Amino acid sequence: MVEDRKNFQKYMIGNGVSSDVVHYRNDEFSIFKKFTDDLPALKEYSEKLINIPSGWWVSAEDRQKIIDLVNRY
């Protein structure tokens, strides 16, 4: 989670690491609009959430680079 997602993404891509929003709130889809409610904690969470590379394909060297970049940000 980051305070300024767009700047974080620019920073990461500038350092050769992709990042993006992967999951969206269900109530953003039109089928769920009638169930939308004021959920301030979910709103804050969804505005700060960013996904970084993770998985078996990320090498130990890449993981360390990502960790270092996140910590420096």
Write structural notes for this entry:
It is a single chain. The protein has 73 residues and is an all-alpha fold. It has one domain (5-72): Aspartate Aminotransferase, domain 1, CATH 3.90.1150. The chain contains three helices and no strands. It has helices spanning 5-14, 40-48, 60-72. The protein starts with a helix and ends with a helix.
The major pleated sheet works out as: none
**CATH fold annotation:** Aspartate Aminotransferase, domain 1
Mean pLDDT: 92
Secondary structure: number of strands: 0
Mass-distribution shape: elongated
> If you compute it from the alpha carbons, what radius of gyration comes out, rounded to the nearest whole angstrom?
15 Å
How many H/I helices?
Answer: 3
Q: Which stretches are low in confidence, meaning pLDDT under 50 for 5 or more residues running?
A: none
Question: Helix coverage percent of residues?
Answer: 40-55%
Can you identify the CATH superfamily?
Answer: Aspartate Aminotransferase, domain 1
Spatial gap, N to C terminus: 12 Å
Could you spell the SSE succession in H and E letters? HHH
CATH class: Alpha Beta
The CATH architecture would be Alpha-Beta Complex
| Global structural class | mainly alpha
How much of the sequence lies in strands comes to under 5%
